[in-house]
Write a structure and sequence with these properties.
Radius of gyration: 37 Å
CATH topology of the largest domain: Purple Acid Phosphatase, chain A, domain 2
CATH superfamily of the largest domain: Metallo-dependent phosphatases
Largest sheet: 7 strands, parallel
Number of domains: 3
Helix content: 40-55%
């Protein structure tokens, strides 16, 4: 009950936040008008304030960095009382160049009771900020005359080429008769040697030609002072009568020591000359308050984002509110309904529509599993319709298959098809089929189409979790780690929770889905294998095949996998390279399968001179696979991307002991030391298991008998019967 009250309090708090957001956004839209060409407005105010006077005072600050707690709350009140005429930022007034940061800065500077001017610095430039600076404030480099003084602002970010600026500056200074000249440039042109612990070379003006030629102009035209920011310190150097002042303590990160502290520089201009004064400010902000300030500024800046982003933020908070509502006010029964009676649907024929991203003639675990389920269901008088991509060499006489044309093909051999799920009439065809249930075999694309149609037709949707998506990051045009560690799991979770039931082949797969937050009912049902097909092999065909492959008395290792990164073929190549040195008995590994990595793998085999030990056989037609399995003495496997590993069951049905790497799809199939070995992801351990089976014929025969018995329990007939029972439960649930 206490937990429910907590969720209830969070729900009402979230509703209050949404209301406050909407209200404050409306207030800002009414009270804070758009701002453009601010520097022009500020200059008009400044000239009106100074009139014809040649005497004035101004403050120079650097690295404001959108600081609310330091600059807005501590600096601005002091500056407003300091009897100065205007403020100049020497650079980095914003923490980054986003629209929200510029709007927040504009709000902060509105608290000043004096005009202000900004220097275009690296933070103003970041995140496409150069366009915003130009729109909101003005050009990236500019100058203005105040009495008999001139203020010059330069762009040190590289946005404007330095040679163009230097030509402009040289012409300006040659024709200018100002008594005093001040230059503002964010990157310091002079290095500060005694503060190396706080800075590095990239903080200074670059390229060196820019700095060198600027120094020449400063000396030639007797410029009074050059002000810079970009460093968290205060530094003043006098070169040939010109003062080079670096000021970086107006709100950004500082160390609160004698080198790095909060401050601003006060400049007074009069007939008697120019004076500069360092004005330290004792703030001593605690690190905790600094973090809280950063958090507050993040929230504060959200109010200044564009309308679309604001609506997105509002939408997220609304979703959170809805989620909290379900946690607080909606009752849940976490036990299944024991009153459901699936018997009526088990006894009568069902109509099943299956949706898949790949299907025969594409060779892979998912198409083979679908075909076996289809055959098993049809053998019991159920009707099955399959929606799948179109392939060039598909069976032209196939029935009850809707083929979708491809939008594009990818993979080295163009074997993967991105089907056109927007084909007109697809919904009408499925509706005419009148499915009792829809079975999805992939969580994206064609699978999403099936989920959409199932929802529209109001029939239950079942999804079989075949594939560990995180192992297919190399096929996705996204950063690999982002897809592998986050997106793949979120995608599976989101999709699975939209379905009415999930079928998984192993208990480890069920454990994974529960770990990532899947709440949908899950049924553990291993995929069936055509056990009888592997029991009889044409001995003449077997002898012919042994001759074609030049197989003698050596021990034959068999592996079956698509030649792709996620299947870990390189692991086995490296292992065979070591085994040929460690094993006295002759052996050979036959790798059956094809894929986009074939040429690379063959080149690697050739480079390692493993041709006599490791052979890439290529793709084999499914009906010929029992003969190829019968060539072997041991089945070896290194993939960790399986949810079950259909080829392992096939190998066991052909009486082959198995050596594989322990993973979610392997752990439930191999009984350690009984029908094979499952090792850690270690070449040393994997090689040791393979070596043991190569050298011990009696152990191979013992494990072969056990493997055969293990496979016998996974017949297609049993598989289809169990799946139909799951269908019946889902239909019964939907009918209540």
């Amino acid at each position: 009950m206490t937990r429910k009250r907590q969720f209830k309090a969070l729900f009402y708090l979230n509703i209050a936040l949404v209301a406050a957001l909407i209200g404050y956004k409306g207030y800002l839209n009414l009270s804070r008008p758009e701002f453009t060409a601010v520097h022009t407005e500020q200059l008009l105010v400044l000239r009106e304030r100074l009139g014809a006077s040649d005497s004035f005072s101004f403050a120079v600050v650097g690295n404001i960095n959108n600081s609310v707690g330091v600059f807005e709350r501590a600096f601005i009140p002091l500056l407003n009382k300091a009897q100065i005429d205007f403020l100049v930022s020497a650079g980095n007034a914003v923490s980054a160049g986003g629209e929200d940061k510029y709007r927040a800065l504009y709000g902060t500077l509105s608290h000043l009771n004096m005009p202000y001017l900004l220097t275009f610095g690296p933070h103003e430039y970041a995140n496409f900020g150069s366009f915003r600076f130009y729109e909101h404030f003005g050009p990236h480099f500019y100058s203005m005359a105040l009495g008999d003084s001139r203020l010059i602002f330069l762009d040190s970010t590289g946005k404007t080429h330095f040679r163009w600026q230097l030509e402009w500056l040289s012409d300006l200074l040659d024709t200018d008769d100002a008594e005093h000249t001040f230059v503002f440039i964010s990157h310091p042109p002079l290095h500060v040697e005694n503060h190396r612990r706080l800075i590095n070379n990239k903080d200074f003006l670059a390229p060196t030609e820019f700095a060198a030629r600027l120094m020449v102009l400063v000396k030639k035209h007797r410029i009074d002072a050059v002000f810079s920011a970009n460093l968290p310190i205060y530094s003043e150097q006098d070169i040939d009568g010109a003062r080079f002042i670096t000021t970086g303590g107006a709100g950004g990160l500082i160390r609160n020591n004698d080198l790095s502290f909060y401050h601003y520089v006060r400049v007074h201009v009069s007939a008697s000359g120019v004076t500069t004064e360092l004005v330290p400010i004792q703030i001593g902000q605690h690190p905790l308050f600094k973090q809280l300030e950063s958090l507050w500024f993040f929230i504060y800046s959200l109010f200044y984002v564009g309308l679309v982003n604001f609506l997105l933020i509002l939408g997220v908070l609304s979703l959170i509110a809805m989620r909290l509502y379900t946690l607080v006010f909606v009752g849940h029964n976490y036990y299944r309904n024991f009153d459901l009676d699936p018997a009526p649907w088990i006894e009568k024929p069902l109509r099943v529509a299956m949706f898949t991203n790949n299907y025969l003639p594409f060779i892979g675990g998912v198409p083979v599993s679908i075909e076996r389920l289809r055959n098993g269901l049809q053998a019991r008088s159920n009707a099955v319709l399959i929606v799948a991509p179109r392939y060039k060499h598909q069976d032209r006489n196939e029935r009850n298959v809707i083929r979708l044309p491809s939008l594009l093909s990818f993979g080295a051999r163009r074997e993967f098809k991105l089907a056109n799920i927007f084909v007109p009439g697809i919904y009408r065809k499925i509706k005419q089929f009148k499915p009792d249930i829809i079975h999805l075999h992939h969580p994206i694309w064609v699978g999403s189409l099936g989920l959409f149609i199932g929802r529209r037709l109001g029939v239950p949707v079942v999804y079989t979790y075949h594939t560990r998506l995180e192992h297919y990051a190399h096929f996705v045009p996204l950063p690999g780690k982002l897809f592998r560690n986050l997106i793949s799991h979120l995608l599976i979770k989101r999709f699975a929770n939209k379905c009415d039931g999930i079928v998984v082949p192993t208990y480890s797969a069920e454990e994974y889905l529960r770990m990532i937050g899947v709440r949908t009912p899950i049924f553990v049902q291993p995929t069936g294998v055509d056990f009888q097909r592997f029991q009889t092999v044409d001995e003449n065909a077997l002898a012919t095949l042994r001759t074609q492959l030049n197989i003698g008395a050596e021990t034959i290792l068999i592996s079956v996998a698509r030649l792709s990164n996620e299947k870990n073929i390189d692991f086995m190549i490296d292992a065979v390279q070591q085994l040929r040195r460690d094993v006295e008995q002759p052996f050979r590994l036959l790798m059956i399968g094809d894929g986009h990595q074939r040429q690379r793998l063959q080149n690697r085999i050739d480079q390692l001179q493993l041709g006599n030990w490791f052979s890439l056989i290529g793709a084999v037609e499914p009906e010929k696979m029992p003969t190829y399995y019968r060539l072997g003495d041991v089945f070896v496997f290194a993939s960790q991307s399986e949810t079950q590993g259909m080829v392992i069951l096939e190998a066991m049905a052909a009486a082959l002991p198995v050596v594989a790497i322990r993973s979610s799809g392997i752990d439930d199939v191999i009984d350690e030391g009984v029908n094979g070995f499952k090792t850690a992801d270690s070449q040393r351990l994997w090689q040791a298991a393979v070596k043991q089976l190569i050298g011990d014929a009696r152990l191979r025969q013992h494990m072969a008998r056990n493997a055969l018995e293990s496979a016998r329990m996974h017949s297609i007939e049993h598989f289809a019967l169990e799946i139909k029972g799951i269908y019946a439960r889902m239909i019964a649930q939907k009918s209540t």
